[in-house]
């Protein structure tokens, strides 16, 4: 049976699958030809180029992302630069904290990501132990039950360990570099950003952005104006992002340059993060792996509606829940298998420095569970730090229904004395005072009253100092009552972040299968929505009389915006179809001698290999409906005569 689908992942051969992707030029290692150049010392790892079908698939995924999120939700799209001044990423915390733990193998000179090293070694030991019984030579070590339990417990919460804890595991469990079995050094933090400088002077340090989010935060005021002050609203940005991964592996899954599509949904924290459209998704059942389950060393998934998950506070709020459901619908629409899908909650140590709750949409592949979309509640972190750093309030102002009286600490400087005493530094000192928070001001007020002098931190002053002493003659700190008619608040941010390359790879694994009668016949069942080419046009042979028919069909489909490809090679029709099954082309049209007689053509569907035969107008209409999603193949088969001639696939 040509069309029965061997769907089980046990029959999956990664080498066969990856060889298809290479052969059909979905993507390739960048600068590959330089590998053979004498003296070439470049490191190409984690850098990939996409070929024609890969590019078309990528573009179709991005296009669908825009429709599903940006257009559906009226999001405000921006396109921000990748080159980012150091000050911005210092304020956001990336310069100090955007790091992974790394171990060096001093003998091989290799650098390994510490958590991945522990994971790989423990998984190998567990798998060897499972195989030990079948190993006739007795080379594989069988682990006792307690050790198996210990390893499984560690793996279930591997993302929760920090550097010192990973170092302890490596030492206690004698974990070594699998490549050569050498001992590795203690983990150190490695910042993942690529650094550079701007202009010939090299005086302005910059980084290549590791995420698109910061550009969106810095444009917050303009976006708020653009949305006429209406809250909540969301911005979106798609662009290349850069991470200097310690040891890129697993093809497209961990690369150093990748396309990231991010949404920043700005919401009033006092609204309980409600979402207007939550009821549209609340019944959708999602697969969850929560924090507690992982901490207890288990990985079982519980299914429940997102409505219930928010009700019982498993998911923190409606807005986060709304996006989880929308992300699920999006990935399934692209071809993700719901049976290999889970939302995994971040463990406390794993959470990025800016996040307060985080769920990853993960897809199961031959590489294990892969995070494709990170959904984080970033609270008010980023807008607050950038406001503080720039003195520009990245806030929302709204008229209050009832004015509010607030008691607060306020510091003021004696203007007449500040200028003459501090000269050029005066502005910097005023700025430093403005940055002090209420708790600090309260403490300083007491100190000023007790000692008559306080010291406050500043940026570097003319004399090189980074703090200044202020005496009570020049500085006063007192409690005042302020009446607020306007409410000013910093919005919270819910952020779904989509790694487009990872999604592309995982979807390809999920839609890949081999025809049961011949495992060499490989198929990519990409949904028509994202398939690189929608229709293959095949003349029966290279007889010249077919050419005008094919040409006019191609033009007709193109004018409908339907991507098509002509294969007039001398290979048999079956071979030409097989080639296009590998490219995921969902439909094929054959033109033969009967076409020249009666104008009928054959339409073939990729997955079932079933065919219908009808006049050109009817077939073109069916193709248009299938591509536009208004008709399914089953409906077409019910409506048009099924072609009973010999299947070209046999
Ligand atoms: N090195 C990478 N290569 C490809 N895609 C990536 C890479 N790093 C992150 N992504 C993608 O960007 C999305 C958002 O990034 P995020 O910062 O949440 O990832 P992360 O938690 O750092 O990923 P990981 O834990 O796998 O390193 C991820 O869900 C993933 O799809």
From TrEMBL:
Enzyme class: ligase
GO biological process: mitochondrial glycyl-tRNA aminoacylation
Subcellular location: Cytoplasm
Aminoacyl-transfer RNA synthetases class-II family profile domain residues: 153-539
Coiled-coil residue windows: none
Any one cellular-component term (Gene Ontology): mitochondrion
Broad class of the protein's primary localization: cytoplasm
Key words, A-Z: Aminoacyl-tRNA synthetase, ATP-binding, Cytoplasm, Ligase, Nucleotide-binding, Protein biosynthesis, Transferase
Reactions that this protein is recorded to catalyse: 2 ATP + H(+) = P(1),P(4)-bis(5'-adenosyl) tetraphosphate + diphosphate
GO MF annotations, alphabetized: ATP binding; glycine-tRNA ligase activity; transferase activity
EC number: 6.1.1.14
UniProt xrefs under InterPro entries: aa-tRNA-synt_IIb, aa-tRNA-synth_II, aa-tRNA-synth_II/BPL/LPL, Anticodon-bd, Anticodon-bd_dom_sf, Gly-tRNA_synthase/POLG2, GlyRS-like_core, tRNA-synt_gly
Pfam family, one: HGTP_anticodon
Quaternary structure and interacting proteins, as annotated: Homodimer.
Family of the protein in this entry: Belongs to the class-II aminoacyl-tRNA synthetase family.
Alphabetized NCBIfam families for the sequence: glyS_dimeric, PRK04173.1
PANTHER family: GLYCINE--TRNA LIGASE, GLYCYL-TRNA SYNTHETASE/DNA POLYMERASE SUBUNIT GAMMA-2
Name by which UniProt lists this protein: glycine--tRNA ligase
């Amino acid at each position: 049976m040509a069309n029965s689908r061997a769907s089980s992942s046990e029959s999956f051969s990664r080498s066969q699958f990856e060889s298809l992707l290479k052969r059909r030029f979905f993507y390739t290692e960048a600068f590959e030809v330089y590998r053979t150049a004498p003296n070439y010392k470049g490191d190409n790892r984690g850098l990939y180029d996409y070929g024609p079908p890969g590019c078309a698939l990528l573009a179709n995924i991005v296009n669908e992302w825009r429709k599903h999120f940006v257009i559906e939700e009226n999001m405000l799209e921006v396109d921000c630069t990748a080159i980012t001044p150091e000050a911005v990423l210092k304020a956001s915390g990336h310069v100090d904290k955007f790091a992974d733990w790394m171990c060096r193998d001093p003998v091989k000179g290799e650098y390994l990501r510490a958590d991945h090293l522990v994971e790989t070694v423990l998984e190998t030991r567990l798998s060897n132990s499972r195989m030990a019984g079948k190993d006739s030579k007795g080379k594989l070590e069988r682990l006792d039950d307690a050790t198996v339990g210990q390893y499984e417990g560690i793996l279930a919460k591997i993302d929760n360990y920090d550097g010192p804890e990973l170092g302890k595991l490596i030492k206690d469990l004698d974990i070594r570099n699998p490549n050569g079995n050498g001992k590795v050094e203690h983990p150190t933090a490695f910042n993942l950003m690529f650094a550079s400088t701007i202009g010939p002077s090299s005086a302005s340090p910059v980084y290549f952005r590791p995420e698109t989010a910061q550009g969106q935060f810095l444009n917050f005021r303009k976006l708020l104006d653009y949305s006429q002050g209406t809250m909540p609203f969301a911005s979106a940005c798609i662009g290349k992002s850069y991470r200097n991964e310690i040891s890129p592996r697993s093809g497209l899954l961990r690369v150093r340059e990748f396309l990231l599509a991010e949404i920043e949904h700005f919401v009033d924290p006092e609204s309980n993060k409600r979402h207007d459209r939550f009821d549209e998704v609340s019944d959708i059942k999602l697969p969850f792996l929560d924090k507690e389950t992982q901490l207890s060393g288990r990985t079982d998934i519980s299914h429940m509606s997102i409505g219930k998950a928010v009700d019982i506070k498993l998911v923190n709020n409606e807005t986060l829940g709304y996006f989880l459901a929308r992300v699920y619908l999006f990935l399934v629409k692209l071809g993700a298998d719901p049976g290999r899908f889970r939302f995994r909650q971040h463990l406390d140590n794993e959470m990025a420095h800016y996040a307060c709750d985080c769920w990853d949409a993960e897809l199961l592949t031959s590489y294990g569970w892969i995070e494709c979309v990170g959904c984080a509640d970033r609270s008010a972190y980023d807008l607050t730090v950038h406001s503080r750093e720039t003195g520009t309030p990245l806030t929302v102002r709204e008229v209050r229904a009832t004015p509010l009286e607030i008691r607060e600490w306020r510091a003021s400087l004696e203007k007449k004395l500040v200028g003459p005493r501090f000269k050029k530094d005066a502005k910097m000192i005023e700025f430093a005072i403005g940055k002090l928070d209420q708790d600090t001001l309260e403490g300083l007020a007491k100190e000023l009253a007790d000692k008559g002098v306080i010291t406050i931190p500043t940026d570097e002053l003319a004399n090189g100092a980074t703090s200044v002493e202020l005496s009570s003659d020049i500085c006063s700190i007192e409690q005042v009552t302020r009446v607020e008619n306007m409410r000013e608040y910093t919005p919270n941010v819910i952020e779904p972040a989509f790694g487009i390359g990872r999604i592309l790879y995982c979807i390809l694994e999920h839609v890949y299968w081999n025809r049961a009668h011949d495992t060499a016949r490989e198929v990519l069942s990409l949904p028509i929505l994202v398939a690189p080419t929608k229709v293959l046009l095949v003349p029966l042979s290279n007889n010249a009389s077919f050419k005008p028919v094919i040409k006019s069909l191609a033009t007709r489909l193109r004018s409908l915006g339907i991507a098509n490809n002509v294969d007039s090679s001398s290979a048999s029709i079956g071979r030409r179809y097989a080639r296009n099954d590998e490219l995921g082309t969902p439909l094929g049209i054959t033109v033969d001698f009967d076409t020249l007689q009666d104008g009928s053509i054959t339409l073939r569907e990729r997955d079932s290999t079933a065919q219908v035969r009808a006049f050109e107008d009817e077939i073109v209409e069916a193709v248009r409906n299938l591509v536009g999603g208004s008709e399914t193949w089953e409906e077409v088969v019910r409506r048009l005569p099924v072609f009973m001639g010999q299947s070209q696939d046999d």
